[in-house]
Specification:
By secondary structure, this protein is mostly beta strands. It has one domain. The protein is built from 1 helix and 8 strands, in the order ββββββαββ. The strands form 3 sheets. Strands 1-2-3 form a 3-stranded antiparallel beta sheet, with no helix packed on it. It is elongated. The N and C termini lie close together (about 10 Å).
């Protein structure tokens, strides 16, 4: 399996896992995509990939922005002082091939 980190211009970083069993056979089949990767730690073992991920949260209570209703997201969009970011370390299990 091949893990590739990258981004499109001005977009968040993604980590993409590809089936790499046949390296000469293009295009590689995408197995899993993790959005908003911040720092890649690497493979902890043969089945677990470790990284940190960025999440935007409401500063008042730590609720993730992407879980808020549209009206609350709009309120936060107009006042950046209401927003914070968290960077938890996450473990991504090896996707099935």
């Amino acid at each position: 399996m091949l893990a590739v980190e990258g981004c499109f211009w001005a977009a968040p970083y993604d980590l993409v896992f590809y089936d790499f069993r046949e390296p000469d056979s293009l295009p590689y089949r995408e197995l899993k995509r993790v959005e908003d990767s911040m720092e890649v730690k690497g493979w902890a073992d043969n089945d677990t990939f470790v990284m940190t991920q960025e999440f935007e949260v409401r500063k008042a209570d730590g609720v993730r922005y992407d879980t808020l209703d549209r009206a609350e997201q709009e309120r936060l969009n107009t006042d950046s002082s209401l927003v914070d970011y968290i960077y938890p370390e996450i473990q991504v299990p090896r996707p099935p091939a």
